[in-house]
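# step 3/5: fold
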Amino acid sequence: MRHEQISFSEIANRLAKTPIEIQLWSDLLENAFTDGKPEKETALTTSLRSLLEEVGEERVAEEIVSIASEVPDFPVVKVLQQALRISAKMRQEQEEALSQLRQTLSELATPIIRIWTDMLLVAMTGNIDSQRAQDIAERLLNRVSSTRAKVVIVDVTGVPMIDTMVGGFLIEMFNATRLLGAKVILTGIRPEVASTLVKLGVDFQMVSIARDLEDALRQGIAITMEEAQKRRQLALNLAKGGVGEGNEGNAF
């Protein structure tokens, strides 16, 4: 075969700009002629990925085409197709990594903390765009559902401005939180934020307003204690009902 008469090392030296690239191009040239052997296919995939990571997609594609002019039986189509598949996989992995990083940053920027029995605190800080608002809403609803929280305190002290789009997301978040059985207490409202919420027509009967975080905590504790009292009373009523039914049964 023609490629056996070609010095792969010479081609690699021509293509490469660094010692690392020389080795990577040499590996690719050696592994390109797989002859259908699985171990060679795996080696080709590894070589291509290393090259793509080192020099980038565009240059790899250009140089693979140039190799075909020096090595006529070089499987240029197969190698390019494999490079495209690997590039697509690498982009997917990068997107997943970026998505995970955004999620981590969102959680760090807006922690959702359980601060009391059946009570969560959402401390918002910095500018909030529509994407971040949606992420916060999804995380909050999941926490409310998993913890069966009865009160959610939303502190927006650290938020300089909320536009109408983000305000709309907050209203949807408040409504969804109420549907899950939790009451919402909003605190830390700046005049600008208050103005936006009023313009959006927020129903302040669906959310309680607190002057500051201390006031919000007092309201939240009062609500949780009231809920606990209701549960205890219900349990007592059920127990009394059970005893009454038992006495009626003994009378016969």
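# step 4/5: annotate
The CA atoms of residues 75 and 198 lie 67 Å apart.
# step 5/5: archive (pending)
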